[in-house]
């Protein structure tokens, strides 16, 4: 789930050099993947200037530069606010790229200055026809493999959510607290898939800031706030718990039925690292319980699963990149492993600034090669 602007800016300060490099590195390789090269997007606090409002079917590449003063996001939406592709946490002055596979149809582009609201939207039309990326047998196998991974995680997410909800409704604060980070592990591993489906993600995982967008504060973090209050009281949280379970059931059904594009795997692997860099490092994600390292580890595991599914393609097209990814994933695992406690992790507020800097550096080093995966996947 996206971060608040203030903390995103702080995290972007840590990641700025890496993200700027990602934008420039990807630009050259992306030019060959979309007819006419990347579509430039000039984002400010009041405008979202997309250089073209049409494209040919196939892979489109958008290069988004934030010339405003607020952190922004860029989305490509299909009907019903279905997310076809997104880039979050674009800090002022940075350029990011989005590779997205779009069949013929009508879409909307959107910039979200301040990362709130419906965004500054414009129509975008895709015409013609193009063979899907999954016509490549190895890419088809990759999406099938990752879909199996998603189903394995949702198969655990649902019963764990049921246990968590039951504990809340039974007013068993100790049990609910113990189940909270474990349940969220399965959610955090597959969050890029969960974010596809409109407002279900903020209903389940929205932080208190969703109120600013006119939404009700519900889901995991609403319950977290009450569970870790100075005087925990969940006596009135039964309806919120029931809604969480209903929303999780809906997203499990949708995620299990979703037909993914290989680029969604590549973008999701990067998106999960962005989640770590802008939510877990800062302590924003679980600000009441401080169980951020459970989520941190789950995000890295989810990213690793997406890359593992794509591995046969990456080994064939860019074996040097695979070696780099293996090394950097190992470095992240080693950096995080220092804070393992039994079956869990240290709390975020038990880590020093030096500890957090070390974790941030490891994520930075992994984020750079991960940012290249989408361009490799989209090559034909």
Query: In which range does the helix fraction lie?
Result: 40-55%
Q: How many helices in DSSP terms?
A: 12
Low-pLDDT runs: 2-35
Strand order of the largest sheet: 3-9-8-5-6
Number of strands: 11
User: In percent terms, what proportion of residues is strand?
Assistant: 15-25%
Kindly report the average pLDDT value. Answer: 90
Structural class: alpha+beta
CATH architecture of the largest domain: Up-down Bundle
CATH topology of the largest domain: A middle domain of Talin 1
The CATH superfamily of the largest domain is M75 peptidase, HXXE motif
What gross morphology would you assign? globular
Intertermini distance: 32 Å
**H/E element string?**
HEEEEEEEEEHHHHHHHHHEEHH
The CATH class label of the largest domain is Mainly Alpha
Radius of gyration: 20 Å
Number of domains: 2
Largest pleated sheet: 5 strands, mixed
Quick recap of the structure?
The chain is an alpha+beta fold and 380 residues long. The chain is built from twelve helices and eleven strands. It is globular and about 60 Å long.
